[in-house]
Amino acid sequence: MITKLAPQDPRTLYPVPPFDIQPQEAPGRESEVRPEADHGEATYQGSQKLIDRVAIITGGDSGIGRAVALAFAREGADVVISYLSENDDAAQTQRLVEESGRGALAISGDIGDPNHCRNVIEAAISKFGRLDFLINNAAYQMTHSDIQEFSPDELERTFRTNLFSMFYLTQEAVKHMTPGSVIINTASVQAYQPSHNLLAYAASKGAIVNFTKALSAQLIENGIRVNAVAPGPVWTPLIPSTMPNEKVKSFGADSPMKRPAQPAELAPVYVFLASPEASYVTGMVYGVTGGEPID
After folding, report:
1. Which residues are known to be catalytic?
2. Within 10 A of 167 (CB to CB), how many other CB atoms are there?
3. Which of 171, 181, 245, 248 is the most buried (most CB within 10 A)?
4. Residues 6+ apart with CB under 8 A from 250
5. Which CATH architecture has domain 50-234+264-288?
6. DSSP E strands, 62-108
7. Where are the domains of the chain?
8. Phi and psi at residue 184, in whole multiples of 5°?
9. Confidence of residue 67 (pLDDT cuts 50, 70, 90)
10. Chain CA centroid to CA 292, Å
11. pTM over 0.90
């Protein structure tokens, strides 16, 4: 007898605002986020879609990156976790990958530095002997109500982390990628519906959409597919560590679903785009926004 599962109502699946005030320093710690985020630890079941492939995931210590690392591992991939300095969070992601029966390597450092990006790629090749997936996911943001509040240093950090790193990592990665490899960039609904207080972040995400489309056209003859995922509000450490307390408390409440996404709700889209099931998909931006249109 086949047991039929009742469909889950997305309106009641996860916690909704108001959330507790939880001040953190950027880039934030997953272990301090309340309520705890769901990365698919108890729910994601793989089906060997990415068996014996190798992925680099930037920002893989927490948030969307952790959820993608876990999902890729349960689909059979080995994972390189690139992160800034959140050692405890990275160690937890590494444990999740290894408990899924796959190899893991965690590398700390600033992906805004081209030399570090080269080291990440070289370490992946040295450890696993190949590179199939580059997931450009790490990001930095700060909120400001006035353009005058953006310092040159902050602007440079935002674009180096969010955009320049994609150039640096891709330049090194494609030297080792073979036909069938995939690059997935994390864009944002902010590229299409920018918030005035996320001016620099939104601008960088708009550039990522452009970068994705142009890069896909450049690499299509190499047999490398390039796509992007554009999330809406997602409950990650970036939120309490970079937004005002009142914004944190009501985060996601103004989305059509009246709540933020959990990282676990993003990971299956990355898996799909990496898998052979998406073999005819390139140059696309997939919105995971809870109903907010991207156009």
Report:
1. 201
2. 14
3. 181
4. 17, 18, 19
5. 3-Layer(aba) Sandwich (3.40)
6. 78-83, 104-108
7. 50-234+264-288
8. -125, 125
9. very high
10. 19
11. yes
